[in-house]
Amino acid sequence: MDNNNSKDFTIKHLDEKSKTHNLLKQELDVNIQEQVLVNKRILLLKECMKEIPNTDPQFAIVKTQFEMDTIELDELILRQGQIKNKIKEIT
């Protein structure tokens, strides 16, 4: 009976490990997709900043959004590294 419980525990542990691995891979995929979108938004904002005179009140709004998106991209890249490290730990 103890041997059976040990096998059940091992199977459950491996199953949980596999689920965790799959969830982390999915999170990594979503993270990369978000990075692509934020990068595109940053490029659009850069173009807008070139076209809007810096004396225009809209320029400050666009610049602020650009700075916020740059911070968001940095955070996404940092999180990507953390997820990759967790995946390495599991495998």
Number of helices: 2
Structural class computed from helices and strand pairing: mainly alpha
How many strand units? Answer: 0
Estimate the mean pLDDT confidence.
90
Percentage of helical residues?
over 70%
Shape: rod-shaped
Largest sheet: none
Q: CA-to-CA gap between the ends? A: 30 Å
Rg, Å, rounded: 22 Å
- Which stretches are low in confidence, meaning pLDDT under 50 for 5 or more residues running? none
Secondary-structure element string: HH
> What's the number of domains?
1
How much β-strand is present in the residues? under 5%
Which terms summarize this structure?
91 residues
Can you describe this structure in just a few lines?
The protein is mainly alpha-helical and 91 residues long. It is built from two helices and no strands. Helix 1 (2-51) packs antiparallel against helix 2.
Blueprint of the fold:
Elements (H helix, E strand, L loop, with lengths): L1 H50 L5 H34 L1
Helix pairs in contact: 1-2
Structural write-up:
With 91 residues, the protein is an all-alpha fold. It has helices spanning 2-51, 57-90. α1 packs antiparallel against α2 (57-90). The longest helix has 50 residues, at 2-51. The chain is rod-shaped and about 70 Å long.
